[in-house]
Amino acid sequence: MSVPDYPDFTPLDLDLREALHPRLSLTPDGVSEFTFSGLYLFRNRYKYRISKGPDGGFIISGEQPAEHGPGGKFFMTPCGAPDEGTLESLFRTHDYWKNISESVLAPVRERLEKSGVEITGDRDNFDYLYFREDLARLAGKKYHKKKNLLNQFLNAYADYEERPLTAALVPQAKEILERWRRDKDEDGDFRAAEEALDLFDMIKLRGALYYVGGRPAAYCLGESIAKGKMFAIHFEKALDEYKGIYQFMNKTFAASLPRFFTYINREQDLGDEGLRQAKMTYRPAGFVKKYTGRVSG
After folding, report:
1. CA torsion 255→252→35→290, rounded to 10°?
2. Chain-wide mean pLDDT for the chain?
3. Are residues 179 and 218 in the same domain?
4. Is 121 in the same domain as 136?
5. pLDDT at position 70, please?
6. How many CB atoms lie within 10 A of CB 243?
7. Which residues pair with 224 in a beta bridge?
8. From CA 197, how far away is CA 216, in angstroms rounded?
9. Directed axis angle between helix 144-156 and helix 245-256, to 10°?
10. Is pLDDT of 160 > 70?
11. Are residues 162 and 237 part of one domain?
12. Half-sphere CA count of 34, side-chain side, radius 13 A
């Protein structure tokens, strides 16, 4: 199955992974949405459709649900900025240009501003970056509170274990996910997380399952991005009855990743103040900045 040329679009399909994954994995910035799984698993929420631009890069069309922002129809260009004619055409059929990365923006920013495209930083969608080594060690005073919670977990639960997530262990991960939804009494990203487990082998994700007293208690799932220099955590679920388990999982998984991963990308906070504070307490090394483009006037 192939991606149609612009202006034609097609819905995202599993058969498109072979066409999309290699090119998306080479995008340098590490935008967490710009992976095949990141797009496919949220295709229904954002009504994603895809096209191929004249330069061979992908154009993704979507719709922002009202509960996740101001709403409206948007387009994204993970591989590069469209030529002027294509960009004008896209702005005629979409409200705004979303998730413009720094490497896509830099070569064309002056041209865009001269042509009346207003560029603004989208702080709610910045991805949080952490040094893998920092999360694996939690060294120094700045991680004092995290280490306290970790030590509480280690002292309370002597019998714990980490196992690489495999297809055979997916049913146990799904037990955790179901329990997580019941405890939260809301769906959140449940549907996408469930499908990620169902398609674990097919979409080539990597993760780990954590046990306490021999029982499944937590799991995390993600993938390599940004030419292999970064690992993006897409899903992280745990049972809250085990105090400190998220700190334990975070540290242990970071330590288990190969050393060639310099950064761990823990995605965005979507403007949720509680989530923002939680992500900031891990002392990010920086952000994957994303910008929005709109035609002024």
Report:
1. -90
2. 95
3. yes
4. no
5. 65
6. 13
7. 231
8. 15
9. 100
10. yes
11. yes
12. 33
pLDDT band at 69 (very low <50, low <70, confident <90, very high): low
Rounded distance between C-alpha atoms, residue 69 and residue 191, angstroms: 20
Asked if the structure places residue 257 within a domain, the reply is yes
Q: Position 125: which residue type?
A: N
Phi-psi region of 271 (alpha: psi -120 to 50; beta: other; left: phi over 0): left
SS3 category, 193: helix
CB 42, CB 98: distance < 8 Å: no
Please tell me the total count of domains within the chain. Answer: 2
Distance in angstroms (rounded) separating the CA atoms of residues 163 and 173? 11
Which of 94, 122, 137, 106 lies closest to 292 in space, CA to CA? 122
Is the per-residue pLDDT at 292 higher than 70?
yes
| pLDDT tens digit sequence for 97-118 | 999 999 999 999 999 999 999 9
Q: Domain range for residue 52?
A: 10-126+291-295
Residue 83 is encoded by which pair of tokens?
Answer: 């030529």
Q: Distance from CA of residue 155 to its chain's centroid?
A: 32
In a domain, 276, yes or no: no
Least confident of 23-27, 59-63, 94-98: 23-27
CA 165/CA 174 separation, integer angstroms:
12
Q: How far apart are CA 161 and CA 164, in angstroms?
A: 10
Helix, strand, or coil (residue 252): helix
Q: Is the pTM of this model over 0.90?
A: yes
78: CATH: 3.40.630.30
Distance CA 210, CA 131 (A): 22
